[in-house]
Structures are given as C-alpha cells and as structure tokens.
C-alpha cells in the first residue's frame, strides 16, 4: 500500500500542479523506475482532476441563476480550472503536435518543430479549436443539469488518461532520449501497470453507475440517467473515444513511426473531446 500511494503521488507530481513538496516529496522519492511505475496511475490522476472540476461545476450550477448563459459560464470556468490544475500540460502537447505535423510532412523536421517551445499557427489554432469545442460540449451537458454534467466530466478525465498508456505499449518512443522528461515514463509499460490503469477506469464507471441513478430524481430528464440508458450513453462515449485514440495512434505511427511525450498529451485532449461528443450523440435521439 505504501508503494501504491508513493507511485500515485509521483504521478500527481508529474502530471499536475498540485503540490507534492517538502517532507511529502522526500517520502515519495524519485527514480526512473518509480516514474515508469507511476504511469499506471494516470487514470487515477483523472479521478482527482475530474472530481475537482466536477465539484466546481456542480457548485457553480447551484450558485448561478438558472438558465441563460449559466451552463456556458460553468463550462468555461470548469475548463479553466482543469487547465490550472494541470498547468496546461496536455494542451501544450496538443499545440506541439499540431505545429509539428502541420508544419512538415518530413518526419525528422516534424520532430524538430515539436521540440520548439514556441507556439506556431497550427498549434494556436489547435488549442483555440480544442478549447472552444470543449466549452461548447460541456455547456451542452450543463443544460441537462448537474446529474448529467458531473459524472460525464469525471469519466471523461479518467478515460482520456487511460488511452495514452496504450500508445506507450503499442508504439516506440521517438522523442529526444537525452532531453525528454517523458522518456523514463514512456520507455516501457508493463502488463501489470496496464491492469492497474484499467482497474482505475473500470472503478470510475462502476462508481457512476452506482451513484448517479439514485440521484437522478431531480434531473431535467431523469429517465436518461436510469442504468440502461446511462450504460448505453457511456458505451457510445467510450466507443467514440476509442475511435479517436485509434485515429491518433495511426497518425503517429504513419507520420512519426512512434510517439513523443507531446503525443500523449494530444491524445488525452482529443479523446476527452470525443468522450463528451459520444455521450451527447447517444442522448440526441432521446431528447
């Protein structure tokens, strides 16, 4: 259990701006082997980030006037809060990938562009469109009330942090080995680590299915949140997120013959958006 907690806290150190410092950091420790093992807890980081964003969203939906632009305000502030918690870690990866793949069809040149800390036109456009799309999708969920918005936001953060681990398993790391912070993390991932990550993900779905239906009596469309309808909508969301992962993986394999740390962040962002969209598409025919 001590090792489990230390690996989880190290994952928080690497993937978020949440403070793990001082004596706590000294107790956690660090080694490349520990960082590699901490990858198993990437979906667990999604539990915390998604839970905090969902909690803020619920509070704002309760505090703001009903109707009007309140869901849009909630979506914008929740998105900004998530970025604050992670330090735009994944958004930065998306921008670098867009700049690299958009800036050159030549593999080596694309990788060089991705190493550049400056944001180019393709990166700026990708970030702007990703944020705009996320706010729009989450605002639409917010129109359906807290019983819809919060569990979907929570699950999206968990699921979207599971898919990048499969990239590590399926593709070689092609970043700058000497300089890449993600090299120890991405060097390899064991089957046991993938199992832990999958358990984090499955536990999140189980929690939502256990807690949401009993709380759905006050929802705008409570029938949508009954177990069968909720399971169907989550299946759609998971399926579209999986398709987004498959597309990203094929893109990286074709253009880069592997992945970099930026590719992991970009995959998280795209898969999160796909999860929201899949859930909404599932509800489209029911509302």
Automatic annotation (TrEMBL):
Reactions catalysed, as given in the entry: alpha-ribazole 5'-phosphate + adenosylcob(III)inamide-GDP = adenosylcob(III)alamin 5'-phosphate + GMP + H(+); alpha-ribazole + adenosylcob(III)inamide-GDP = adenosylcob(III)alamin + GMP + H(+)
Q: GO molecular function of the protein, one example?
A: adenosylcobinamide-GDP ribazoletransferase activity
Cofactors per UniProt?
Mg(2+)
In Gene Ontology terms, what is a biological process of this protein?
cobalamin biosynthetic process
Major location (coarse): membrane
Q: Which Pfam families match?
A: CobS
* UniProt keyword list: Cell membrane, Cobalamin biosynthesis, Magnesium, Membrane, Transferase, Transmembrane, Transmembrane helix
Sequence intervals crossing the membrane: 44-63, 69-89, 143-168, 189-212, 224-247
* Localization terms from the record: Cell membrane
Q: How does it sit in the membrane?
A: Multi-pass membrane protein
| EC code | 2.7.8.26
Q: What EC class does the entry list?
A: transferase
PANTHER family given in the database record: ADENOSYLCOBINAMIDE-GDP RIBAZOLETRANSFERASE
Its function, per the record, reads:
Joins adenosylcobinamide-GDP and alpha-ribazole to generate adenosylcobalamin (Ado-cobalamin). Also synthesizes adenosylcobalamin 5'-phosphate from adenosylcobinamide-GDP and alpha-ribazole 5'-phosphate.
Q: What is this protein called?
A: Adenosylcobinamide-GDP ribazoletransferase
Protein's organism: Rhodoferax lacus
Q: What is the lineage of its organism?
A: Bacteria, Pseudomonadati, Pseudomonadota, Betaproteobacteria, Burkholderiales
Q: Which gene encodes it?
A: cobS
């Amino acid at each position: 259990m001590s090792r489990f907690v230390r690996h989880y806290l190290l994952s928080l150190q690497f993937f978020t701006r949440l403070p793990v410092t001082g004596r706590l950091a000294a107790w956690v420790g660090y080694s490349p082997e520990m960082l590699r093992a901490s990858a198993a807890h990437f979906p667990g980081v999604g539990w915390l980030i998604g839970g905090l964003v969902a909690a803020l969203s619920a509070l704002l939906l309760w505090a703001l006037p009903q109707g009007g632009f309140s869901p849009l305000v909630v979506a914008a502030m929740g998105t900004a809060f998530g970025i604050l918690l992670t330090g735009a870690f994944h958004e930065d990866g998306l921008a670098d990938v867009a700049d690299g793949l958009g800036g050159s069809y030549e593999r080596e040149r694309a990788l060089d562009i991705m190493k550049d800390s400056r944001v180019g036109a393709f990166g700026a456009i990708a970030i702007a469109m990703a944020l705009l799309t996320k706010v729009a999708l989450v605002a639409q969920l917010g129109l359906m009330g807290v019983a819809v918005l919060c569990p979907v936001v929570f699950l999206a953060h968990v699921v979207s942090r599971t898919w990048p681990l499969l990239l590590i398993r399926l593709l070689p790391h092609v970043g700058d080995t000497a300089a890449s912070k993600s090299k120890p993390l991405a060097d390899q991932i064991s089957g046991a680590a993938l199992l832990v990550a999958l358990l984090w993900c499955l536990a999140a779905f189980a929690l939502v299915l256990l807690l949401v239906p009993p709380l759905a009596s006050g929802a705008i469309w409570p029938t949508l949140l009954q177990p069968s309808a909720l399971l169907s909508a989550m299946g759609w969301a998971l399926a579209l997120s999986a398709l987004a992962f498959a597309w990203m993986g094929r893109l990286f394999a074709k253009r880069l013959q592997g992945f970099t740390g930026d590719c992991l962040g970009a995959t998280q962002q795209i898969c999160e958006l796909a999860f929201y969209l899949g859930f909404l598409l599932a509800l489209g025919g029911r509302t």
